[in-house]
Amino acid sequence: MLKIFCFALALGVLLISCKSEKPKDSMPEAAPAAPAVKTHKLVQKWETDTILKVPESVIFDAKNQVLYAANIDGKEPWGADGKGSIAKIGLDGKIIEVEWVKGLHAPKGMGILNDKLYVADLTDIVVIDIAKATIDSRIKVPGSKGLNDISIDPSGVIYVTDSQGKRLYRVENKSSSMVLDSLSGPNGVLVSGADLYILNSGALNKVNKNGSLSVIAEGMEGGTDGVEHIKNNDFVVSCWSGTVWYINTDGRKEMLFDGKSLGKNTADIGYDPATKMVYVPTFWKNSVIAFELMEE
């Protein structure tokens, strides 16, 4: 009986030992590879002749497959001198008309809705009939000092920044109301889906429903100017001093272009999502540059 008990005990110890021993050829499991960080770059495709007249902003017209550039035309970017105009440019970089529409002062940001081109011009929004190439009307924004950029939502509500007055206005049915006040340096504004974004003193911000700002990315010095939505929550932002940035969804910034050493400003940009072309007005250099946005 004792022999049987001892044999059973020994067999149990042996089985436990065998179960706990790892195979000699087993290897630790490899950690999953971290996803590759995607980067972006701009590849220049063309540059117009330098015969534009201080182009501050450029916009892509998808319906007519052309570009419009806002010519300030003069050494005073905020001068009410009647010299301002809108240029018309082909997608091949050939200038169709330097002064396609005349009669503005110091035109800057633009928006398109229902065959009309809306242009920020000092204290007015100038409405241009695209088919007729004539000024249709002017919308006064009372209290404004220096309107700069425009974005229009699908219902026709216009958002326009007042860089001189440090405000953001909302214009509906030719009636304006103030959305934000006491900003430090407002410029580019963008409606994207149900969201509203604004550039303010080196930062890209989302405008919350309660009027507060949520910073998406900051540290873009040199006068944040133009902003375009690319995909998801990615954006391209230009700074007037000569840089263009890619803003990733997580807020990570990539400098795509630095024109400061070339003496080229990068003012209010335009974008064609179908071809991924970014259009950059060079301000004092009197041209527009087309870059293809590429992913690496």
**Spatial strand sequence of the major β-sheet:** 1-24-23-22
Residue runs with pLDDT of under 50 for 5 or more positions: 1-27
Count of beta strands: 24
Average pLDDT level: 91
Number of domains: 1
What is the fold named in CATH at topology level?
Neuraminidase
Structural class: mainly beta
Strand content: over 45%
CATH homologous superfamily placement: TolB, C-terminal domain
Q: Can you tell me the CATH architecture?
A: 6 Propeller
Major β-sheet annotation: 4 strands, antiparallel
Secondary-structure element order, N to C: HEEEEEEEEEEEEEEEEEEEEEEEE
Q: Termini separation (Å)?
A: 78 Å
Principal-axes geometry comes out as globular
Give a structural overview:
The protein is mainly β. The protein has a single domain (39-295), classed as TolB, C-terminal domain (Neuraminidase), CATH 2.120.10. Helix content is 6%, strand content 51%. The strands form 6 sheets. Strands 1-24-23-22 form a 4-stranded antiparallel sheet, with no helix packed on it. A 4-stranded antiparallel sheet has the order 2-3-4-5, with no helix packed on it. Strands 6-7-8-9 form a 4-stranded antiparallel sheet, with no helix packed on it. A hairpin with a 4-residue loop joins β22 and β23 (277-281). The longest helix is centred in the N-terminal third of the chain and has 19 residues, at 2-20. The protein is globular, with a radius of gyration of 28 Å.
